[in-house]
Amino acid sequence: MEKHQQEQIDRLLSDLDFPALYRGYAWKNDTWEKGFPDIFRLEREVTTAARDQTLGLDHVQRIACWGGIPNRDRIDCADRLSIALYFGDSPAYWLMRAPVNTIRIIEGQIRGFGPTYASKLLRFAVPRVFGAIDTRLVRVFGETIRAQKCTRIYRRDRHPAGACLRPR
Hints:
Blueprint: H1 3-15, H2 18-24, E1 26-27, E2 30-31, H3 37-51, H4 57-67, E3 86-87, E4 90-91, H5 94-97, H6 99-109, H7 115-125, H8 135-141, H9 147-154
Antiparallel strand pairs: 1-2, 3-4
Helix pairs in contact: 3-4, 3-7, 4-7, 6-7
């Protein structure tokens, strides 16, 4: 990353009050006051499927629905994605070493998902490792920033949240 980009990111991080932003976050039915019920439900379902290696089209469609992706009928993938994200209850060790490769693997298996939605799927599947690359942030920072330059900012070690619009 170039020095001026790092300085901009450092300035942004020092200027923002992340706890206040977290408490003020709202998306559809999800708010801090309500406990982010849809996010929590989707995270629980997708994390369980990732651990059981049953992550597939149903989960992808629910994430697209939650995120409000246009043209959801264009989204398609196998009934089960071909990727191991967990060993038992622990996230696979390579996720921290090569997060961009993981996003590319997911993106390559899902027609209609770009890196932003691939990162959302990973955020719900392995929340201890991944955060989501938000489309609004991409617009602010510019589309020329490649995913590997952003990964450090959006990954997280531990952060509460997760769910879908409809309970299963």
